[in-house]
Specification:
The complex is a heterodimer of chains A (150) and B (411). By secondary structure, chain A is α+β, with helices and mostly antiparallel strands. Chain A has helices spanning 2-7, 10-17, 65-78, 83-98, 126-140; strands spanning 30-36, 41-50, 53-62, 147-148. Chain A contains 5 helices and 4 strands; from the N terminus they run H-H-E-E-E-H-H-H-E. Chain B is globular, with a radius of gyration of 22 Å. The chains are: A alpha+beta (150), B alpha/beta (411).
Chain lengths: 150, 411
């Protein structure tokens, strides 16, 4: 039951029920669509990038609690960050999710995003947590191809 | 009439070593039997015995070991023929599983018999393995796929079946029991419709095979495919049964060793049935394991198994149905112990993870039936599927796990 509490922490449940930045911004410099065909999760990430800085970032879509909370918290963490900072966060986030569960969670600059460390106990859910991030990466690379985590 | 003694589930479970395993510190509650079934020790022993004391390739050696292996493989084929009520062991083709069985027919029979404008009739509740092979055959031949719709209850619409199966129909390919809804299809009625037009019927027996006896002659179908791993046997082995006259008229599916009579660069002649369809070294240990699995299941009683599974299904429908927010997908009158449901406001994967934390294995997802999910209007469901080794406690654990999920997400 502890594993479950670690996975579905209050902050994750809160973001899954009341996702932040759930909208399409007025100015969108790039966007990408991502889906996980295995569970039907689907989302679109919109970004407004000006001079290498993420001026606005938002998303729309639907999915499980983990993918919804992850998309919501990603947009909160990245607003105002530079693209380099964003890339760095993604790397740390990925490291957090794939580190062996018996080691301490490598939090680095992750801040609130560290709540996703509980996903490590449920490896099949890693792709739920990373769907929004992979989709953002595709948007920033201006890759028009849809993203699939399968 | 004699009633079979009830199934001694506690004793039966001792035959399955997996139930000694704890999952996340809890006893394993395995409710993913429509996906794959657990293996009794008899199956594991049969494979191990073969590899440890009897292993050689078949049909090739002049030596004793190879001869013994060949005989054991032939016995497995004969055993399966008897199990399916087939007249002739040569009608039993070993394949990798149901998927390969259907692909074999769609590819081989399809290439020889389908042409532009011909129609292949399937149903809306087919597994992807009953859809995609026929789409490939249609693309190669110009034939057209026709789909029998289902009703809101998740049953085949027989009126529509009667109008869809017509003079252009060349074959009907139908799932015997739905892997997602548990619906037991009225195959006798569909076969009668097909026979009126003189066309063959393939039944996908992947789900039906583990819940009751199958007699292909009594059913009157023309092809029947199933997977060993869903019948408590090994993975990587399955069976396609086909009527000898049809199989003989079909071109080989794959070429290679074992399936030939003579080979020259100018012309190759093929081996007789069933070897024509068994190119390369086959899954010998798998066939022996499947033989052991059939001996094991038939050593229990189908009547006792059916009575036990019926009681569990009715308990599961009752317990889950009492939970506010649980919505069943489909309510077929005749169903195998398989049920799909959703929980209002909670994604099936999140329910699946809460259940996993309780040691309960179910499947959450689209169950390889995306068109059926689209028909039901859901992206995914939670599916619980029972087998004879499940207990009333397993069902109670599932129901309390679902209640726990609701607590976690709505609490």
């Amino acid at each position: 039951m502890n594993e479950l509490r670690d996975l579905y922490q209050e902050v994750i449940l809160d973001h899954s029920k009341r996702p932040r930045n759930f909208r399409k911004p007025e100015t969108v410099t790039s966007e990408a669509h991502g889906r996980n065909p295995l569970c039907g999760d689907t989302l679109t990430v919109f970004v407004d990038v000006e001079n290498g800085t993420i001026k606005d970032i938002a998303w729309e879509g639907h999915g499980c609690a983990i993918s919804t909370a992850s998309a919501s918290m990603m947009t909160e963490s990245l607003k105002g960050k530079t693209l380099a900072e964003g890339n760095n966060l993604f790397e740390w986030f990925h490291r957090l999710l794939t580190a062996p569960p018996d080691l301490g969670a490598p939090a680095g600059p992750l801040g609130k995003l560290a709540v996703f460390s509980g996903v490590r106990e449920f490896p099949v859910r890693v792709k739920c947590a990373t769907l929004a991030w992979h989709t953002l990466k595709a948007a920033l690379e201006r890759d028009a191809r849809p993203v699939s985590t399968e | 009439m004699r009633t079979a003694a009830p199934l001694d589930v506690i004793r039966v479970r001792r035959d399955f070593p997996i139930f000694d395993r704890a999952i996340r510190g809890k006893p394993l509650v395995y409710l993913d039997n429509a996906n794959s079934t657990q293996k009794p020790r008899a199956v594991l022993d049969a494979e191990r015995r073969f590899y440890e004391t009897g292993y050689a390739n078949i049909h090739r050696g002049v030596y004793l070991l190879s001869q013994e292996a060949t005989e054991a493989y032939d016995r497995a084929r004969a055993r399966i023929a008897g199990f399916l009520g087939a007249k002739n062991p040569a009608e039993i083709v070993f394949v990798r599983g149901t998927t390969e069985g259907i692909n074999l027919v769609a590819s081989s029979w399809g290439r020889a018999n389908l042409g532009p404008g011909d129609e292949v009739v399937i149903s809306e509740m087919e597994h992807h393995s009953g859809i995609v092979p026929w789409q490939l055959a249609c693309a190669a031949t110009g034939a057209v796929l026709k789909v029998i719709p289902i009703t809101d209850a998740g049953e085949l619409d027989l009126d529509r079946a009667a109008s869809l199966i017509g003079p252009r129909t060349k074959i009907v390919s139908l799932i015997h029991v739905s892997n997602a809804l548990g619906t037991i299809n009225p195959v006798a009625e569909v076969i009668a419709l097909a026979k009126r037009h003189g066309v063959p019927v393939l039944l996908d027996g992947a789900q039906a095979i583990s819940h009751g006896p199958i007699d292909v002659e009594a059913l009157g179908c023309d092809f029947y495919a199933f997977s060993g791993h869903k019948l408590f046997g090994p993975t990587g082995v399955g069976v396609l049964w086909g009527r000898a006259a049809l199989l003989e008229a079909m071109p080989p599916y794959q070429g290679g060793g074992n399936m030939i009579h003579t080979v020259t660069f100018e012309k190759t002649t093929y081996a007789p049935l069933p070897f024509k369809f068994e190119a390369g070294t086959v899954n010998i240990a798998g066939a022996l394991g499947l033989h052991a699995a059939i001996d094991y299941v038939e050593g229990l009683s189908w009547d006792a198994i059916a009575a036990h599974e019926r009681a569990l299904l009715s308990r599961a429908l009752d317990r889950l149905g009492a939970i506010p927010g649980v919505v069943f997908q489909g309510s077929p009158a005749h169903r195998a112990p398989v049920m799909s449901f959703t929980v209002d406001g909670i994604h099936p994967h999140d329910v699946g993870t809460v259940l996993d934390a309780e040691g309960i294995a179910i499947r959450a997802g689209h169950h390889c039936v995306q068109p059926l999910m689209a028909r039901l209007g859901v992206p995914a469901t939670i599916r619980a599927s029972l087998s004879f080794y499940n207990t009333a406690d397993d069902v109670e654990a599932l129901a309390s796990g679902v209640r726990k999920a609701i607590e976690v997400f709505r609490g």
